[in-house]
Amino acid sequence: MEGFDEYVQLVADFCSKRENYQRSLGQTASTVVSMFGNDSLVKLADEVAETSGVKISVTTLRNYKWVWEKTSVLGLPDDLSYRCLQAIAGSKDPNKYAELVKQGYSSNEIIKLIREESGKPTKTKSYICNACGAQNQI
Predict the structure, then answer these.
(1) Which of 44, 55, 72, 101 has its CA 20 to 30 A from that of 62?
(2) Per-residue pLDDT tens digits of the chain, which is 138 residues long
(3) With a threshold of 0.85, does the pTM exceed it?
(4) 107-111 LR contacts (CB < 8 Å, sep 24+)
(5) What's the CA gap between 24 and 64, in Å, rounded?
(6) Distance from the Cα of residue 84 to its chain's centroid
């Protein structure tokens, strides 16, 4: 199919950028701190804003850095949602949840398990079926 490869590459690019920019920022922030010290994130954020007009807070960089440092060694798949990475990073046992991901658990399942472990209520949504009018929980 002529031209199909272009669409394959587009989809691959979209998927890699969808969640990975947070990982990339976390890795970059971690590297900058290890090379230039803790105060370097303030300078980095200021320089990015000054040279490109893109504003990113130092707190955001610190959060991405923290998540990166907690999860980068776990061998997690690239398509795992960043929200799931945050939950794993903040869990009592990140290795346990990394293993569950490798066994096929989804991001939502992992987040639900971590919320249950920490005693937080699980989030559910209700919807009403248009065909029969039954109310369902998801």
Answers:
(1) 101
(2) 677 777 777 777 766 665 578 888 898 899 999 999 989 999 998 888 888 888 889 999 999 999 999 999 999 998 899 999 999 999 999 999 999 999 999 999 999 999 998 877 766 677 777 777 777 766
(3) no
(4) 107/80, 107/81, 107/83, 108/84, 110/84, 111/83, 111/84, 111/87
(5) 9
(6) 6
